[in-house]
Amino acid sequence: MEFNLLKACSNTYGLLLLLFILCLTFCYPRRRKGIPPGPLLVPVLGNLLSLASRDPMSRFAALRRKYGDVYGIYIGRELTVVLNGYDVIHDALVKHGKLFSVRPRSKFHQIMFKDPGIVFANGPMWKEHRQFAQRALNEFGYEWSERTIEERINEEIGYFLRTVGSHDGPYDVGGLVNLSVANVVAGIMFGKRCEYDDVKFKECLHSVGEAARLLTRSGLLMSLFPWLFHAPGDLLGIDKLAKIREKPRAFLNHVFYWHDLHFNREETRDVLGLYKQEIIRKLRKNDECKFNNVTMRALMGELLSAGSETTATCIIWTILYLVLNQELQEKLRSDIDRVVGCKRPPFLSDRKQLPLVEATILECLRISPVAPLSVPHAVHEDVSFRGHVIPAETTVLVNIHSVMKDPSTWSEPDVFKPERFLNNDGDLEIPNEFIAFSIGRRSCPGESLARMELFLYVTSLLQRFTLALPTSQPPPTTEGVLGMTFSPKPFQIIFTPRDCMSNPDWENVGI
User: Fold this and answer.
1) Which of these, 127, 233, 258, 308, could form a disulfide with 182 (CB 3.0-4.6 Å)?
2) What's the pTM value of the predicted model, to 2 decimals?
């Protein structure tokens, strides 16, 4: 009897062991012949452990050193190809842009981004909305005069600086920068400014980061355990994400209602008005219309969140580097005093006379790129690239960080040196390898607007305040946190008003 029991147990354990081995075999992804090289695979996890780090970009750099400029990593069973270095990225996004300009269309992306505007759309939908966004953002300043955008930005900067000046002692300006830059974008998008204490406005912006964190978690879980989509409950957070998205939807409903009351078909001064005109024009011509209320909401939400989050993060990084480099801060302020003075706000026309300001901004974008891996690309067919095979439906990551920190392009790439963007005559000189806004068909459509905002915010801030570290706190770190953007950790500084803040002439420019 005892022997039979032991035999039965042995058979049971043997069967379980066999099932375990079969499970590992099934879950263990294998690299097809020609697939880009990469680290050894771990069952179920793939290469996830190879990326686990507080500084994930350093792990990407280590993988590049070991496997080259084109390598493959697995998140669970899903292959992701990582492109590194300017030559490789330019080859993919510019020379072979048609193949690499699409977005992933995995089940995860179809579920989470079912109403794409520009960011995750593909085909004619993306093409038409991309063209519209470029015209609306890049030509806005030329069709209705660049001065119009400049006035919008400077008006908002006035509110921003007045709020900064109302704070005594150490202050974390990050939240205020986000609200202020979002107001610039909202003004251009909708023709409406929101108060900094507007609850719907603040909830909308907060929900963007909340949704991004949830999407990262959900995407990882779905890659590792695809069956979770069919499991009971809300293990992937799909229902939770829907609730989070109610906040920006409520804000957009409020803004759209306000806009409908003030919309003039014959004359419009904002992007939403242009979109409505485009819908009307296409309906009158009986064109196949890919512009409708659903895509309008998706596009406006994307432009508001992406257009404000990235630019605000750039400004916060610049403030951090300025407060850590007091000597540079004084040089910049001296240049601003010489060119702009104290009787007027900075204008975009001052940029050519303030090359060091421009160089400082560019160096901040280089040394701490806010989108180090860009937005994921994909290929929708098998592609032969640089001696490798990239299978159809593979996600492709563009490692912008690898270009901005490449020692073959930038001497001492980890050292903050704005002068690297100045030539021997002291004029601004931007190498082709500076790709903070990406390149190719999917490059950032709001680059020109972002560059305007960065210059005016940074110049105005230095013109009217000195920035110093609190002596009671340790200096902030330049180590960032990778989320929706690569952001600095929270820090506090002291803003001391200069004489410009008490100049009565500022009453005419919103100060």
Assistant:
1) 308
2) 0.88
